[in-house]
Amino acid sequence: MKALVTGATGFIGSHLTEGLLKKGIQVRCLLRRPEELKWLKNLPVEVVQGDITHKDSLRKAVKDVDQIYHLAGVTKAIKEKTYFEVNAIGTKNLVISVLEKNPNIQKLVYLSSLAAAGPSRNGSRKESDPCEPISPYGQSKWMGEEFALAHSHELPLIILRPSAVYGPRDRDIYSFFKCLSKRINPCLTGPAQYISLCYVQDLIQAILMATEADTKSGEIFFLSDGHSYPMEEIGDTFAKVMGIHPLRLRLPKQVILGIAFFSEYLSKFSKKPSLINKGKAMEMVQRNWTCDITKAKTVLGFHPQFPLFRGAQLTFDWYKKEKWL
User: Fold this and answer.
1) Is residue 189 over pLDDT 90?
2) Most CB atoms closer than 10 Å: which of 13, 81, 225, 305?
3) pLDDT grade for 268, boundaries at 50, 70 and 90
4) Is the pLDDT of residue 194 over 90?
């Protein structure tokens, strides 16, 4: 059995590559820069140079593999068009390449995001709810889904929409840990904000289960640890595993949007994507980002093993070990 992983050097992709290797599956990794192995260094993987924004470079990568895990994408960008070039058109390029060079593939797994569906309006998001993405990132992931679904009658496709994913190697939640380490616990003013989370190893298990499950092509699944947490509880849990008592700093929506505007302005000069841009800020100020994983439990047999406290402890321990904190 051989699998192709796009985005293999990233946070989730590197964990998935390790998980596939543990199952005895040969792994081919699509890399834009083969010399930058990052977390893949010393792993027995095949490396193929390519870029999902260039369809011609994908032909060699997709040939002769049994499974494809499409994780490549951008979550931060200086220009909005980059999200669509990579997350949307890049997915279209991959699907077309598979149809041309490997139409008999056993499974194509596209890792999308809760952001593609949008924030929760009336209870936790379900797969049957219409998509209402509110950021360029979410819109581009949704477009990627639509491009893939247009060919679900030709390819055995499955789409996974995880909630916010955290764990060792992640740099987004790391920024929150860094803020807490300075004894500051930021949260929105107003009503409690609820969020679904997913520890990275739970996500990897769900991805592997989805590959093995006998599902109809085009099925979509939300993934999380099965709970909806008030944002304040998340901050308190992280602070507890760190052994600190930070000051809770309540921020109005306007302040977060202002920070995002200023950060985007500075990124034009630094030539680096800002941690918080307008799209990210719009996501941050929404009341709820929660999803229902009943379908994943029923169809895939997915049962999360890492509740928040355990996941937070493992993540913090890794940050300390690697001297990130």
Assistant:
1) no
2) 13
3) confident
4) yes
Residue 67 has what pLDDT?
98
Q: Of 53, 74, 61, 159, give the one whose Cα is nearest residue 101.
A: 61
For position 11, what pLDDT does the model report?
Answer: 97
Do the Cβ atoms of 175 and 286 come closer than 8 Å? no
DSSP 17-30: HHHHHHTT-EEEEE
Distance in angstroms (rounded) separating the CA atoms of residues 86 and 7: 11
Total-model pTM: 0.95
Please classify residue 148 by burial: count the beta carbons closer than 10 Å to its beta carbon, then call 0-12 exposed, 13-18 middle and 19+ buried: buried
Beta-sheet strands, E only, within 79-207:
107-111, 157-162, 164-166, 184-188, 194-199
DSSP code, position 130: P
- The H or E element containing residue 222 is strand 219-223
Considering the domain delimited by 2-170+197-225+289-304, tell me its CATH architecture. Answer: 3-Layer(aba) Sandwich (3.40)
CA distance 48 to 26: 13
Would you list the domain boundaries of the chain?
A: 2-170+197-225+289-304
Q: Residue 17: exposed, middle, or buried by beta-carbon count in 10 A (0-12, 13-18, 19+)? A: buried
Closest CA to 227 of 316, 315, 288, 298: 288
Half-sphere exposure of 220 (CA within 13 A, CB side): 23
The two tokens of residue 222 are 């939300």
Mean of pLDDT values over 35-42: 92
Cβ-contact 1, 25 below 8 angstroms: yes
Instruction: Name the pLDDT band for 77 (thresholds 50, 70, 90).
Output: very high
Whole-Å CA distances, 8 to 12, 17, 28, 172, 315: 8, 7, 9, 18, 20
The pLDDT assigned to 54 comes to 94
